[in-house]
């Protein structure tokens, strides 16, 4: 089955006023890891990670890399810094969310060692849902799991198989195809 049109934010990223306001609030709290990469006096990448103390994990709010600087190791370097930062603080995992049609991001997270940990069909707008776009959650484990995988992997696989069947019905090219 051919893939649907991949997600494309274009060559830059123009946040809305609401997104900028939320970013300012997180920066003012100053509890996380906030990194930028610069080239020629211009910001070409941004990473924003914050602790989630209630479950002792770290959440990647944003990793943005300018189109002209992708596939040069900038994103990998930023994500490696985030992993090291979270390990230093003894967090259990580094987690994030992306869109199901953001194929490049899904491939990147998979190459970095993140695992698919969840799907949420109702996170986005009705227009996104109509296009078959759903939220995909990824996690990078930073500690050994308390339970042996034999106890939770079959259940996770069964849930994933059920969700994949639902997604195939939408006939959209989702990044889950990468995991099959």
List the helices and strands and how they pair.
Blueprint: H1 17-29, E1 33-39, E2 42-52, E3 57-65, H2 74-88, E4 93-99, H3 103-112, E5 115-120, H4 126-130, E6 135-141, H5 149-169
**Secondary-structure element series:** HEEEHEHEHEH
Assembly state of the chains shown: single chain
Cα separation of the termini: 13 Å
CATH architecture: 3-Layer(aba) Sandwich
Q: In the CATH hierarchy, what is the superfamily? A: Gcn5-related N-acetyltransferase (GNAT)
Mean pLDDT: 79
Largest sheet: 6 strands, mixed
Overall radius of gyration? 17 Å
Could you name the CATH class?
Answer: Alpha Beta
Based on CA inertia axes, which overall geometry fits?
A: globular
The poorly predicted ranges are none
Helix content: 25-40%
CATH third-tier fold name: Aminopeptidase
Structural class: alpha+beta
- Number of helical stretches of at least 4 residues: 5
Word description of this protein:
This protein is an alpha+beta fold and 180 residues long. It has one domain (17-179): Aminopeptidase, CATH 3.40.630. It has 5 helices and 6 strands, in the order H-E-E-E-H-E-H-E-H-E-H. Strands 1-2-3-4-6-5 form a 6-stranded mixed β-sheet. The longest helix is centred in the C-terminal third of the chain and has 21 residues, at 149-169. It is globular and about 50 Å long.
Give the tags.
Aminopeptidase; alpha+beta; 5 helices; 180 residues
Short description:
This protein is an alpha+beta fold and 180 residues long.
